[in-house]
Fold each of these.
Amino acid sequence: MHSPHMARLLVALLMGLVAAGANLLGGLLIARRQWSRRYLKYFIALGAGFMLATALIEMIPESLRLRDESSSFFFNDPNTVFVFVLAGYFLVHFFEHTLAPHFHFGEETHHEEMSHAHASYAALLGLVIHTFFDGVAIASGLLVSTWLGGVIFVAVFLHKVPEGFTVASLMLASGQSRRAALGSSAILGAATLAGMVLMFLLRSAVADALPFAAGVTLYVAASDLIPEVNREPGMGMAVLVFAGVATLIALKALFHV
């Protein structure tokens, strides 16, 4: 195996383990009651801006370039990039807000609406689908370039702790044990790793996987995270969203990408 390829695999493994560990950390914080809602909101707001910028400035334009330069697994028309983006967007909508209509990021306080275990498991399924494509997104980016893989990893990492926190909170609100709450966050981490592994195995499909993952990223940022930011009073959280966008732009300028 060539050393550059081995190095990329090692980077992917490291990123996957860190992302999965952040899911577990989020679950651990809620399971042990060592958490601060305020700090969680900071992650959500900053992550929302960075994810939006990553999807619109990096992932979708790169998907168009890939579609133009390579033979797609399904379609050759560059315009089909937006079909895949839309498909990724609505896949997450179906699993997170159709099968689990009460789902939202953050601490679950409506215990009466989560009284049945199936509500928490439906939310877990939605998050598993979403985190699986987090892994697909990171791996797709790395298959294109180290830069793209790196910025997608940062975008994913910023909402990993809130993901683990959310799913553990949902489990506790539905009457599950702390062990089940922590286990659910570990499942999210495992789904991320599974998405990365599958993408490296199916690397020839990167021209289709990247725009699909862009749609997932766009949904999580715009439909999951931004509404949580909008719940907060004052302008502090909104400013952090802009800071997330500015961070990506600054990184691009710094590295001349």
Note: The chain has a mean pLDDT of 85.
Amino acid sequence: MPIQTAATPPHTITVSLFPPAQNSQENRQICPGDSTIVFGNYVSVAGAFQQISPNANGCDSTHTITVSLFPPAQNSQENRLICPGDSTLVFGNYVSVAGAFQQISPNTNGCDSTHTITVSLFPPAQNSQENRQICPGDSTLVFGNYVSAAGAFQQTIANTNGCDSTHTITVSLFPPAQNSQENRQICPGDSTLVFGNYVSVAGAFQQISPNTNGCDSTTP
């Protein structure tokens, strides 16, 4: 009769799966020209960047950082013309010289935009001069008023650009006219020619005539 041996009991290995690793996603927006640190490196361009790392169970999970760029900030420009000697308010300060002045400020996305104000000057206003000579005792109309004394009189007016120019009228007086005197004696009944007329009586006779400057002189 054969000898029977005991059967080897079976060894069972049961395999189970850890829960799937949970991948993660992160979105970032940056301004053009700025950068953000992604997995230890500074990134300034748009793109999707991934890093694989083990979770608590030792299974690989992927973390994705998607970087996108805000639209470029819209810079703005402003031109101003001012008269020489005038000024304009630029970013809180009065400016009287030509130049380009800039201010950087954040837009709604927090990205920097630049506003430039360019200041330029009108050509200098051309001042004008006028000289007048008058006879003593006469007068001349100066800026709406009659003037009989020597002097320099000015009026400021706006030119086509709105800038002030000055017109100066200088009034001077001719030297006083030199009056002349002549004495004559005649015999009673005689006569003498005085200013085109024969005179036979005593008296003082005068004639007013202009001198070389046009001013009146008297010959008695």
Note: The radius of gyration is 53 Å.
Amino acid sequence: MKPLIRLFFRTLRILLGPVMLLKERLSRPAALQRPAEQQADVDRQCAGLALYQFTTCPFCIKVRQEMHRLALPIKRLDAQHEAEHRIALQQGSGASKVPCLKITDASGTVQWLSESGAIIAYLRGRFAA
């Protein structure tokens, strides 16, 4: 019974994945326009951020939409298909739950932030105009 349930959800992901990605592309919000100097500063700040994600996860899509709206060039790491990213996520955050934002500050201290709502609140608080 368990393999049948897994097969059902795998098939569902295969069928709905492209639809979700198309919806993400078509409903992408307009990017925030900043002066070049201010955007360069934001780009430098984003160098210490990495988003661990699954491509078709609805919560990850929500975070990516906000990243686009705020014009944030945050590195995206696929924890679903890339084993090294999944292992790093599990070791760092203690779980393989996505989305998860890895925040590395200037001193090298690493903080892991899970939950799409918390990640969006953090990004808005730090980067919103």
Note: Residues 2-26 form the longest helix (25 residues).
Amino acid sequence: MPDKIIRATGETAEIRFVLVDATDAANTVAGYHSAHAFARMMLGETIVSSLILASGLKTNGTVQVKFQFSGDFSVATADATPMGLVRGMIPAEDVRSIGDFEPLLSPQLMTVRKLNDKGIPVAEGIVEMPSENIGPSTAYYLLQSEQTKSAVGIKAKANPEGTRLEFCGGFLVEAFPKADEKTLAIMEQVVRTMPPIENYHRPGQGLDLDAMLSDLAGPFKYAVHREIVVQPFCPCSESGVMKAMTGLPREELEEIVIKKETTELHCDYCRKRYLATPEQVRNLLERMDASQAARDESPEDGDAATDSGEVPPEAD
């Protein structure tokens, strides 16, 4: 069965449900990073957290989630959209250093950035992680940064060899602002008595989200509004990599041209390999010079541009 997200609400109760099975997507993304065992599970759970939070976006956009630790493991991050597109990343040095062992780590910060459909940040929240577990930290973020009462369960489990996730998913149950105390008390009791997520694992078929939703709703009737397929996706491109190279010191770019060496770059998320030839870097430098010249020739503040009440935009 393909990975999917189920979104539902109570028919009369002021509650929202989001259930995620991201097993195949998490395995695909973890494969990009050659992540094993703990690293694979941590990356998978971070992916589920990002998908859960992205489901709350009111418009198209992206949610970027980052969990930071101290100790033998430093960071896991994932980006997701409301339509189920997701990517994730853990540093290669973390994968190499911990191998197949569970590291010693101390939770530090959870950062959530929301971007609009043009990739422009519109909000950011940072909280101290209450534990090293992704689910409770996600619920804590919702309470502290968005004043949302919720319960979050997230779990990934690797096979004995650590080479593949047997399952990776989770749930969110969230109270709307108008939810009454009786509804909150019932939902708290339901969540406390929920079976563990691994009970919904069906070998070779992912997680049984329908059964999970039925149990999670408890005595409340619910309506499923949407089911969305989860897909690993990375928007990296050659043009984006070249644009990122403009952030390098000019001396490094000029050295590439002088030495006539082709530079190899990798996307941090999908690990796709890109090559930047000396000719491409030379063209990049020429465009940077042209852009700087255009800025130098633009009117000063208070000059002709202010006559219309507008300031001309900077060149890209």
Note: The longest helix spans residues 278-297.
